Amino acid sequence: LQLERRLRAAAGGGSGGLNVTTFARGATVAQDNPYRAEFYTSARSNGVWNGSLAFAPDVVIMMLGTNDAHEKFWDGPDAFRAALEALVSGYDRATAIALLSPPPPSPTHRPILQKPFKDRVKAAGAVARQLARDRNLIFIDVHAAFVAALKADKNDGRRLYFDTRHHTAQGAALLAKTVFEGLCNATDVTLAMPPLPTNPLPTRATDT
Fold this sequence. Notes:
The chain is mainly alpha-helical. A three-stranded parallel sheet has the order 1-2-3, sandwiched between helices. The longest helix has 22 residues. The C terminus is likely disordered. The chain is built from seven helices and three strands; from the N terminus they run αααβαβαβαα. The relative contact order is 0.14.
């Protein structure tokens, strides 16, 4: 939502010729599992997917992999690539698609449980990078941006995360800034990035 708001603001509230719309829902994964089945078959979720296709976007921003990296759903890099490629193939060939590497989990929250998940998230990002290279898609390295920010914070995830993987307002702002700049660098669109928030950190996902 922060990215959508920032794109709208950068385009002058829509007057700059950008029609920015979010087609997404939480708890979905690229690979086959009950979430994906619901994503395609339920009335609400099917409307999201079909609505995205019917919108006929010029640019699609796609970040999947965090939920896929969960031990319940991860079937390996090959399965994740096949599922991601199937989603990419659903759009018109003229559509510019930006694949994002998923950010790492927080190193502060439940650190003992994070190592296997962290490795799977990195693997998902590597798949997205390679698929973007193979299909001539845009790749935006969100993972690297968060790793750098965490390093600057001395590996304290509390500024960017309020739990293991969900972001505070500042974490969401970093995500938005990274994607915003990545899109501008990869396309002919030149926009001014709206200011990032400096307000105290929220503790709930609804604040982002």
